[in-house]
Amino acid sequence: APSHTQPCHLQEPPFFPNTLLHNNLPPRQAAATALRVLQHLFHTLSANSTRQHWPSQARNDLLNKLQHHIHHLEQCLRDNAALFKGPRNPLLAINRYFRDIHLFLRAHNHSACAWDHV
Fold first, then answer.
1. Which of residues 22 and 111 earns the better pLDDT score?
2. What is the rounded distance in angstroms from the CA atom of residue 46 to the CA atom of residue 15?
3. Interatomic CA distance for residues 8 and 19, integer angstroms
4. Ramachandran angles phi, psi of 98, nearest 5°
5. Number of domain units in the chain
6. Residue 5 placed within a domain
7. What is the pTM assigned to this prediction?
8. What is the residue range of 85's domain?
9. Is 102 part of any domain?
10. Which superkingdom (predicted)?
11. What's the rounded Cα separation, in Å, for the pair 17 and 97?
12. Any alpha helices (H) in 22-55, and if so which ranges?
């Protein structure tokens, strides 16, 4: 993550959903959940607002590795439409978590301090 030189005092960023940390998902659902997290990370880190705070080479290397793992998981999960049905859909928790991260970063102008907190 980017480094910052000034002390920063921000509210706490969103916490990763506990329901995902302690949920024993079947292997295909766990893989699809991991895929969604990687897709969100890729989207977040490839946004123009991140470029100013991340070293280019390190960011590109990370994006390339994320893309590799995303591609691999997508190949394994070609037919995953029926994996998440019912009231406890972990993908909704992931979407909400990353939406809150984007709101947190935007509220703090994507500062190095905000990135450090995230």
1. 111
2. 21
3. 30
4. -70, -30
5. 1
6. no
7. 0.76
8. 26-117
9. yes
10. Eukaryota
11. 7
12. 27-46, 48-51
